[in-house]
Amino acid sequence: MEKLTVSSSPHFNGKKTTRNIMLDVIIGLCPAAIASVVIFGPRALLVIAVCILSCVLSEYLSRRAMKRPQTVGDLSCIVTGLLLALNLPVTINPLMAAFGGVVAIVVVKQMFGGIGQNFVNPALTARIVLMNSFPAPMTHWTAAFDYGATADAVTTATPLVTFYNNGGEGWPGYLNMFLGVHGGCLGETCALAILIGGIYLIVRKVISPVIPVTYLATVAVFSALLGRNPLFDLLAGGLMLGAFFMATDYTTSPLYFWARVIFAIGCGLLTIIIREFGSLPEGVSYSIVLMNIITPLIERYVKPTAFGKAKPEKKAKKEGAA
Fold first, then answer.
1. Model confidence at 16, in pLDDT bands (50, 70, 90)?
2. Which CATH class is domain 18-301?
């Protein structure tokens, strides 16, 4: 008789696989990737290609070295590479970009067991490592449509730096920020492209709107409370990209509704605190990674009561009455 392995309930046949979900995320990131090539030129393609290739090779070689089944086919390494590339400036040295891919896959992902086991977002963590290892190249921004940009090109300031350091003078304006006509990382400049990709993922039910909507709303509210410009803060920096594509990562974000709300509020509050009081103008990467770390703690205290079980406080009252 054939033996069957039965997992715990509930038992149902889900149509979505890891590969299908990752493919949807790649499709969702395509508008931002295409916009980066239009805005920053062909060199953006080089950065994207290097990051993806580095992540794919890192995953393949690390799985072989660890003698584990290959997982390149689930496309998660391609998503990590694409996200990493979209968080880098167009002038980044390809070797630095490749190093970021190795950090994301080998150190953050595979050393903790692979997909589903890492406790922080691999792409964001790699970006933070690159920021601390190579601060000058990682903050070397070039103007939009400067297709000849290299590491020796004339640097320009991002809207976050220009707006608050220069008293609001010299910033590109809301329309240009929405369309991405300004300096910044490859995938964070064009808010329109990010929104198109984010809406696609929501419609496909790959992500829930709870985290991105709560994250963006929290930033807007606290920006207003601190006397900042809420609309500017929503369009500037990597907020849109982080809210839709990185804060919603399945592995590192909460599962339950109220846990997601708390997680997103924490991300938004930390982002504004870093922007307002920190030495760095941007705080999205650090905010999401910090909230990733405390996600298990959030879920522990916000986990809903199982059906048929008394809530802890009610159970204590009954025992006291007895």
1. confident
2. mainly alpha
